[in-house]
Design a protein that fits this description.
There is one protein chain. This protein has 234 residues and is an alpha/beta fold. It has two domains: 30 residues; 184 residues, Collagenase (Catalytic Domain) (3-Layer(aba) Sandwich), CATH 3.40.390.10. Helix content is 35%, strand content 23%. The strands form two sheets. Strands 1, 2, 3, 5, 8 and 9 form a six-stranded mixed β-sheet that branches. A three-stranded mixed β-sheet has the order 4-6-7.
Length: 234
């Protein structure tokens, strides 16, 4: 009887140890720490007419994020610079982790799955993945503006970790209903005739985006973190 009691005690202790170890392992591999990304990102200037909230969903591979805080801050910073021309800025409000199973986006269904259950109204959602396949032909792309095929009113941006510095700003252009253009100065022109660092939006594109943003804020499709979007005339 004593031996049986000792055996049962040993089994109980072993079970407790294994459960504790499993819990510890889960805790170690819990969630991505968003703090460095939030700290690195430039805040929206409150003097702008619109500050739009941005949530980032960041993929990890082998438990490592696919991009650094500095890389993400640079992407957002370039967007801030260009959109400030029309009184629009972006505020990084949250950073979430994407599972490694979604780090490689290969099909239309993969693109749908990124945001289908994560989309919320009022937020600009950006998903950063390790690799983004071109679903129309062989190869890979740096970014895309995507609409959920089950509800095309739900839209988000998917950004590859290989993206160029202007990619996020370009995809925000699509997010606010710009098409590819033929303006030489425009970052929406895939064959633009000016140096890369001089690309921006054409004045017609700025005007169109401002109208879209104003309408979406008015219809509560987008939050404005600095008020109701009204401006005072000089």
């Amino acid at each position: 009887m004593k031996r049986d009691s000792l055996h049962r005690s040993f089994i109980s202790a072993l079970s407790l140890f294994l459960c504790s170890s499993a819990f510890y392992a889960a805790a170690v591999h819990a969630q991505l720490d968003p703090t460095p990304y939030l700290d690195a990102a430039e805040s929206c200037d409150p003097s702008l007419t619109y500050c739009l909230p941005v949530e980032i969903w960041l993929a990890t591979v082998s438990e490592e994020p696919v991009c650094t805080p500095e890389w993400l801050a640079a992407q957002l910073g370039r967007a801030q610079t260009h959109f400030a021309e029309i009184g629009v800025g972006f505020e990084l409000t949250e950073v979430h982790e994407l599972p490694e199973t979604q780090a490689h986006t290969e099909t239309r269904s993969d693109r749908d799955a990124l945001g289908h259950d994560r989309w919320t109204e009022g937020i600009v959602h950006v998903f950063v993945v390790a690799q983004l396949a071109n679903v129309d032909e062989e190869g890979f792309i740096n970014g895309v503006h995507w609409r959920d095929r089950d509800d095309t009113a739900h839209r988000w941006v998917i950004l590859s970790a290989t993206a160029w510095p202007l990619t996020l700003a370009h995809e925000f252009g699509h997010f606010f209903r710009l098409s590819h253009s033929e303006y030489d100065v425009s970052m929406m022109n895939r064959e633009a005739g000016v140096p890369f660092d001089e690309l921006t939006f054409h004045e017609d594109e700025f005007e169109r985006m401002l109208g879209v943003i104003s309408d979406r804020v008015e219809d509560d499709e987008l939050q404005n973190l600095v008020g109701d979007g009204d401006t005072e005339s000089d």
